[in-house]
Records
---
Amino acid sequence: MGKAKAPRRLADNEARAVLRTVRVSPQKLNLVAAMIRGKKVADALADLEFSRKRIAGTVKKTLESAVANAENNHGLDVDALVVAEAYVGKSIVMKRFHARGRGRANRVEKPFSNLTIVVREVEEQVEAA
């Protein structure tokens, strides 16, 4: 006799992907996450493909993972997906020392981040002309 299955945290028309401990500061990662927030998945993937930010490729892989989760695990329509949420959290910070002149040392912090992307299936709105 096992434990009861935990209820799903997301709605039935949502899927998510989480990227943990990525080696970039949360501030820099949030710039890329803000770029795709609220967009259609196809537009967000195109923006990430041509972005000059170093971390954009990793964010693109995470978004593709969220789309694959939506399609394979939850049976959602890929063409109707929108990036509902893209948020960044802090993870560990490695502390290192940098040698300076006269026998002194300065602290160098190397931050890590977490990224969560939630995609939502939306119905196409027909506009009356």
---
Amino acid sequence: MAGRPIDHEHRAALLDAAVDHATEQVFAELSWRSVAAALGVSTTTLVHHFGTKEQMLAAILDRLRERLIAGSRDLAGEHADLATTARAFWTWSADERRWPTLRLFFAVYGQALQSPDAHAGFLGQVGSDWTAALRAAQGPDVDPDLASRRATLVVATLRGLLLDLLASGDRARVEDAAEAYLASL
């Protein structure tokens, strides 16, 4: 006997709500019950739409990554160069409205590094989207190895600056460092 079909629109809405909930929680403490209660659904509903808890958490991480990439990519615009794209990523990410999402991102990143087998999908994708966008921003005439090296440096530097900003809250100092770095591009 086949189960009821998945309503993909409802699943997407549940997933977005689950990500919003996760940004306000300790990721390691997310459970079926806590997510179900926050979303106003039963745990059975979550099982129906996501399968296992691990699949739900993986879906939350994928949506989180999608949000981070989509939000920052839209700011750069089409045909932006490396400096413009990097600045757009920084501007979007350093906005205090993004801090709950970035806190979740870094919490998950740390957990994934401790349990790489459990979070292989997240680790495999964590920097590839931004890196790809930054490589593309350098244009087709730039040596691919050089473009990849530059993109990797930009991602690593901005990620480090964001982590410092979140940890210290010292916006003036970190923004000054970010501006100096971005101006050098």
